[in-house]
Every structure is written in C-alpha cells, then in structure tokens.
Design brief:
Blueprint (H helix, E strand, L loop, with lengths): L4 H6 L7 E4 L3 E5 L7 E7 L14 H17 L7 E4 L3 H4 L8 E5 L9
Antiparallel strand pairs: 1-2, 2-3, 3-5, 4-5
The structure holds adenosine monophosphate (AMP) and zinc ion.
C-alpha cells in the first residue's frame, strides 16, 4: 500500500527492530515506546483497521493475537503481565492505518486509559 509506514517496513523501505516474524505476521519494537516493552504486531496483509476486516481475515487475526502469547513467552513477560491494544480511528487514537496490535509490558499499566 502506497504511503503506508508499516507496508514500507514490510517492503524493507524502512528499517525496524524485529521481535518476531512468521509467514503472515511481523512484530517489531515501537519507535516511540510508551512502556519499557512496546511492540507493534502487524499482519503482512494491508488492512486499515478492525472496521475493514473481512470474514476471510478471521484466521489471520486469530494468529496475530496468538503471536502475543509466543512473544510474551519469548521476552519473558508472560507471568508479570502485558496488555494488547488495537486503536481504531480517531477516538481510538489510531495514527497508522495498517491494522496493528500494541503489546505493552514491563511496568504496571494504569487503567482506565486516558
Ligand atoms: P496507533 O497510534 O495505534 O496508530 O499506533 C501507531 C504506532 O506506530 C505508534 O505507537 C508509533 O510510535 C508507531 N510507529 C510509527 N512509525 C513507526 C516506525 N517507523 N517504526 C516503529 N513504530 C512506529
Ligand atoms: Zn500497510
């Protein structure tokens, strides 16, 4: 997708600090971390956000969420805990319109969010 930052990362036009990769999913460190651990998990397929998911994306998104378990084990935050977030559109605070899951960890996260 033209002008999509995350597609540029996928096409190696931009670099990233990779944490996990499978045939359909890539995870990398957020460039502006909001917690000691802040990882962005994306499907390699360009989808803008949850609103644009198709029935055929159910398996892909299940795999994407499952990757949080794999990553949490890998970086050793499984027991301490972590938070997974999908921001959607303006009120959700979405700024990059390639669907992504934030995986935040490494400190006690407050609730509710701002
Ligand atoms: P959101 O506001 O939910 O759309 O989240 C977008 C996230 O992408 C923000 O946390 C940004 O810091 C992060 N981000 C933007 N550009 C990059 C990049 N080139 N590499 C890694 N993370 C990025
Ligand atoms: Zn994209």
């Amino acid at each position: 997708m033209l002008d999509c930052i995350f597609c540029k990362i996928l096409n190696n036009e931009l670099t990233c600090s990779k944490v996990f990769e499978s045939d359909q999913i890539l995870a990398f460190n957020d460039i502006d971390p909001k917690a000691p651990v802040h990882i962005i998990v994306i499907p390699k397929k360009h989808i803008s956000n949850i609103n644009d998911l198709n029935e055929s994306d159910r398996k892909l998104m299940g795999d994407l969420i499952f990757s949080a378990k794999i990553i949490a084990e890998k970086i050793n935050v499984k027991e301490s805990g972590f938070r997974c977030i999908f921001n959607t559109n303006n009120d959700g605070g979405q700024t990059v319109f390639h669907i992504h899951m934030h995986l935040l960890a490494g400190r006690e996260l407050s609730w509710p969010p701002g």
